Amino acid sequence: MVFLVLVVNVISASPLMKNPLRSYRSRSILPIPVGTSPSVVDSIAAGTQLAIEHCQHAFQWDRWNCPKSTFTRQHKLLPTRETAYAKAIVAAGIVYEITRNCSRGSIEGCGCDQSLGGPPTHLPNHIYIENSTELLSSLVQEVPNLQNTSKWSWGGCSDDPSYAIEIAQRFLNALDKDMKPAAYVARHNSKIGSETASFGEISRKLKERYRQSERLSYETVEKSMYVENTAKHEMMEKEVEGMESSLVYLEQSPDYCVLNTAEGISGTKGRMCSRNTNSTMAAERNSCRNLCKKCGYTVKRLKKTVSKRCNCTFEWCCEVKCDTCQENVDEFFCV
Amino acid sequence: MPGTILENLSGRKLSVLVTLLLACQIVCFLVGLIAPSPARTQGMLSTICVDENPENDNINRWFTKKCPKVIVLSNKKSITGLQANNLVFAVQMPLYDLDFSRWQQNLVGILQIDIVYQTEQKIVEPIIELTLDARLAYSDKTPDGGTTPWQYYAHAEEKRYMECTFDNTAVIGEEREGYPYNCTMVPLFELGCLYHDYYLMNLRLPYSESKNTNLGKVEDVYLHTIHMNGGFTKIWVGLKTFFFPLIVGIMVWFWKRVHQLNRTPALLEYVLVSLGGTLAFLNLPIEYLSLTFEMPYMLLLSDIRQGIFYAMLLSFWLIFAGEHMLIQDHGERNTIKMYWKHLSTIVIGCLCLLVFDLCERGIQLVNPFYSIWVTPIGTNLALSFIILAGISASLYFFFLCYMIWRVFKNISVRRSILPSMSQARRLHYEGIIYRFNFLMLATVICAAVTVISFILSQVAEGQNKWDENMEVELTSAIHTGVYGMWNVYICAMLMLYAPSHKQWPNEPICGEGEEVEFSRLPADANASEISSLTTFAAKANIE
């Protein structure tokens, strides 16, 4: 938990994602055991950042606009459907970045199946990871040794998408490792987000799942966790029937209209809304009604002249030449 | 005068031989089970480096994973002020600090270019003409644990075609922004040998008025490599090393026996020994040389060896079936000339495949980035070649089946006259026919498996080039099984069709059932015939 806070803080402090972070990390701000692949840490950081960006973009016209506080957990979050979405998108972001770094070859050993060792681990096994140091030790990667080399020469080494999911799950489950219903729901939602595909695809899919997310009662969730009747008395958990691919939550969303510092809600007062009737997003078309009027605020129009890049010419990578156009725009705010 | 071993071997010895051969076949198959899959793919994400001096023509400037300035194309900030010609996609092979082993034999590279939807940079034409400036370098490990500096290996500017589609129904409006296009993969290079430890690809997508103008917003470039698995090569070469001396030995033995006879060798014997020769050539484990020498022509060479073997095997079956069908009209000795109609089709077919192969693999010796598959015309041509080869293989098979069916019919007609013969003679011929039928069945199975595996391997070779969704994977066991089958079958043919030295008394010895020794009957003694079955069939034909 502490770890993620640090990661997010580090990222928000630096406009560029990759290199500053690496130098920051090498000054060992984070409790990283010797030997942890730096790329795993980088991937977790970059993945979280990617998730935040996508989340804020996807929810820019909603009352809940995906504030950063959702990810830093500086205060306890209610297990609402928004939290559910946030958990899932962070998982997706981390899986995405680890997968990329794997196929770039910068996470050692993530291709060959032997890298993680042992049988595939399932959820209950991670719950008891005690602290973040132990968690990170579990992410320590073996440097390819002689045995790996001969294995590679014999049977090759394909990139294994399940590796990224495995690492991301280990990391995220350790953040919500207790046996309370809220943690169960968080683990479930992280699992929903752990998917390997293009991030654009996943993020779209998750928004859809957010709309169709299901509320569970605390009793249902408690029934899904039970003490195994073995000598170890291990806690086990199972999926709630029919929820295998849905985002789930426990609490009704609070009123996002009004400021509530205790819950980390900044309210919609002062938010910008849009009257762009051409927009294909219903949320944008209705944003002024939704954010301002329904919340009891009024819409204020601000006339503004902005300079924009226009008439750009493109090469396959980048914009090459643009003109600057002056444009009169109306901006709307809730007051 | 002796016949062939097939006719004269005792039932017990024959069954021991057949059991041995079958066991050998099963072992070949089982050996394939311990081998890893023949080839393995590895997908690699390129690192995008910034080349500050794109005008610099020095070919030995290489960008690696650790190049000084790395950018991310999806991050707008990191690309401001850059132009397409500044960007270099660098991929170091293999991943994870591993190094290639020479046992891995060859390397194929396929590009996957990820293009995302951008309102201002939409793709207008679904078929995109790509201009790729691709360079390859190599490096080797040094004894002190370091690596040698990157050395130039190949460079070419190539055109490729890529088809990109967008699922308009799934995503609408603003959600399209940043959503990926569905693009086909692009074959990039094919290396005939993996001599060096590391390879580095530097790819540029040059931009000018005529180059890469229709490309949308590129976000990532992946290189998928396919190489042979070292374990598979080891087992494969092991099989060859085992069979090579065996087949050479049997050939020598066979030819010696033929020469001990006081007649010139018959056509079937010539064909058998040349079949053994092509198999020995195929078995020759020259792969060992590729462990020490750089041999980029290995792929071409093994294709040629395989092709010669196919041609010989297919010709053999035609002649083999023909010899037992007795095409000759006057009982005169058969020569190869009688089969020219049958054989010329095989030769022409194989020549076509050879020309096609030389076009692709031959040019690849000079330019590993060359591919016949890249242009639409080339793809269609290559595809039609493969389809044609598949069709003619199946046609051949049906024709062969037809010939074998005629052989059987021919024999069963002759069989009807058996009851009129003396008991000794009848038993003699019935036994031979039974054995011969068994051998023919083995031949049909062998031919069917060969044709099927030929078609499958053609499909498998083409699949990564025209459709990545097609999943045809020939497992190692099938490869080694088929390879073992050819060896076992040809060994069996050489042994069973070798002239027998047994001299039998004039009265036939008749035992019970399996233990009958099928001796030559004095009436059949004819120095110019190799087997009493052909004589029998011929005689019946004349009668």
Notes on the structure:
The complex is a heterodimer of chains A (335) and B (543). Chain A has 335 residues and is of the alpha+beta class. Chain A folds into two domains: 6-257, no CATH class; 268-334, Wnt (Wingless and Int-1), C-terminal domain (Endo-n-acetylneuraminidase fold, 2-Layer Sandwich). Helices cover 44% and strands 13% of the residues of chain A. Chain A is built from 14 helices and seven strands. Chain A has helices at residues 2-13, 19-26, 38-58, 69-72, 81-104, 123-126, 132-138, 146-155, 161-175, 181-193, 199-211, 218-223, 282-285, 287-292; strands spanning 214-215, 225-227, 235-237, 248-249, 272-273, 299-314, 319-334. In chain A, the strands form three sheets. A three-stranded antiparallel beta sheet of chain A has the order 5-7-6. In chain A, a hairpin with a 4-residue loop joins strand 6 and strand 7. The longest helix of chain A has 24 residues, at 81-104. The model of chain A is unreliable at 1-35, 114-138 and 140-146 (pLDDT under 50). Chain B has 543 residues and is of the alpha+beta class. Chain B folds into two domains: 5-38 and 231-505 and 515-542, Rhopdopsin 7-helix transmembrane proteins (Up-down Bundle), CATH 1.20.1070; 39-228. In chain B, 46% of the residues lie in helices and 16% in strands. Chain B has eleven helices and eleven strands. In chain B, the strands form two sheets. A seven-stranded antiparallel beta sheet of chain B has the order 3-2-4-10-6-7-8, with no helix packed on it. The longest helix of chain B has 44 residues, at 423-466. Chain B starts with a helix and ends with a helix. Residues 327-331, 466-473 and 504-528 of chain B have low confidence and may be disordered. The chains are: A alpha+beta (335), B alpha+beta (543).
